Q: What sequence folds into this?
């Protein structure tokens, strides 16, 4: 199967490339570079710039042409091996290089774009498609990044994976760490996570330590612990490998659309690693000649957790807030990837919005009307579409994709109240109760 690949690849890349180096596609070894504009810092490993302390990232893939890539992907579309099917690893020429035998995959990011007609009507557009990342193996968008982060952590010889999490990251890390035979520890803010996600994380055999403070405190602590021990791999979205995996959402979406970019991609924003990754993916697809243009990205935050949307409106530096929203997956007051996110929005003429919890929950009901379930945070995307229409920024006939980030069972704490009174045990009583409910 990999004959095509072997022909395309530089001979230096055959055999075992050192996994801790940022090898990219068919080029040579490349260091990680600082994501801060104008810094120019570089590093071979880690997640912070030695010069300014900002986040690191991989440079764009190069050395492979569009036609060769399209042919490889066409071949893989009928392949049966798990890594050729994976919606991350079938794009492996565009990822840091790792031996195929070392890939830890659970068939992630194989997500069909689905039309959502009732959601479209609710939000005021003619058509909307959803890319529902809740269909991933651990039920959220985090799996696309985690397969890359854990594969490289295991290849580097780390024995333990660590993350700070409000839930989705921990479940994804726990699943992939288990698959890799690594230990897994989660630092969770006390009282700030969904019970369903904790239960899921424990089911994969991970350990959950609740710590005093909020998510931002937990992340600060996790970064310090990760830096203090070589045995421990920090796999939060500060890890540049996570971003590489997550950018494949852009590739997988474009591939289904025959590499035609939509007008808009709308998604919820918490720590903002997701929009950073998507923006990078769309830019790389354009640079490689795979797609024809960049979609406009719109990041939607909950108004009680909207430091980025505010910074975007004002053009000022981000001011951290104490985050409050029912959408626990985006309850983040100090988003670590905000500068990367701002850069991506500027590159694509995108924007950031803040919407109320009521708007978000109303959007979730609309999505439910299409037979699609998602956690509250996910619905921020559709609420964003309605707001863009209200503001006149989006036309009704534009081509829109909403990213739904997590499965409906991820957060069962936010449910519609059910009737508190039991109904009498009789056909008449049930029928009359049903009539009443229907109204
Ligand atoms: Zn720097």
A:
């Amino acid at each position: 199967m990999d004959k095509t690949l072997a022909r395309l690849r530089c001979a230096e890349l055959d055999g075992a490339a050192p996994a801790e180096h940022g090898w990219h596609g068919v080029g040579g070894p490349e260091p990680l570079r600082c994501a801060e504009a104008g810094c120019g810092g570089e590093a071979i490993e880690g997640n912070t710039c030695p010069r300014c302390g900002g986040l690191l990232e991989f440079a764009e893939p190069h050395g492979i042409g569009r036609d060769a890539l399209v042919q490889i992907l066409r071949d893989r579309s009928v392949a049966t091996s798990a890594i050729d099917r994976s919606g991350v690893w079938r794009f492996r020429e565009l990822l840091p290089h790792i031996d195929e035998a070392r890939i830890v995959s659970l068939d992630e990011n194989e997500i069909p774009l689905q039309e959502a007609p009732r959601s479209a009507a609710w939000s005021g557009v003619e058509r909307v498609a959803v890319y529902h990342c809740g269909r991933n193996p651990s039920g959220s968008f985090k799996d696309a990044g985690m397969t890359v982060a854990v594969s490289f952590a295991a290849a580097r010889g780390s024995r333990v994976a660590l993350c700070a999490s409000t839930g989705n990251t921990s479940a994804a890390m726990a699943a992939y760490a288990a698959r890799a035979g690594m230990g897994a520890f989660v630092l969770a803010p006390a009282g700030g996570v969904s019970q369903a996600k904790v239960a899921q994380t424990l089911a994969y055999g991970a350990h959950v330590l609740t710590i005093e403070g909020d998510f931002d405190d937990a992340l600060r602590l996790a970064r310090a612990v990760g830096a203090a021990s070589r045995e421990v791999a920090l796999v939060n979205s500060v890890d540049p490998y996570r971003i590489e995996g997550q950018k494949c959402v852009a590739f997988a979406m474009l591939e289904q659309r025959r590499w035609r970019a939509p007008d808009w991609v709308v998604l919820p924003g918490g720590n903002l690693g997701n929009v950073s990754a998507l923006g990078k993916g769309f830019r790389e697809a354009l640079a490689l000649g795979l797609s024809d243009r960049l979609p406009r990205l719109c990041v939607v935050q909950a108004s009680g957790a909207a430091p980025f949307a505010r910074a975007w409106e004002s053009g000022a530096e981000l001011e951290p807030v104490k985050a409050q929203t029912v959408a626990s997956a985006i309850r983040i007051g100090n988003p670590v990837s905000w500068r990367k996110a701002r850069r991506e929005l500027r590159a694509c003429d995108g924007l950031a919005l803040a919407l109320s919890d009521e708007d978000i929950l109303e959007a979730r009901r609309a999505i439910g009307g299409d037979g699609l379930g998602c956690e509250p945070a996910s619905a921020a995307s559709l609420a964003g579409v309605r707001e863009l229409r209200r503001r006149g920024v989006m036309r009704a006939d534009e081509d829109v994709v909403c990213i739904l980030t997590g499965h409906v069972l991820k957060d069962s704490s936010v449910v519609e109240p059910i009737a508190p009174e039991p109904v009498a045990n009789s056909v008449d009583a049930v029928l009359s109760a049903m009539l009443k409910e229907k109204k």
Observations:
- Residues 3-102 form one domain.
- Residues 1-29 have pLDDT under 50 and may be disordered.
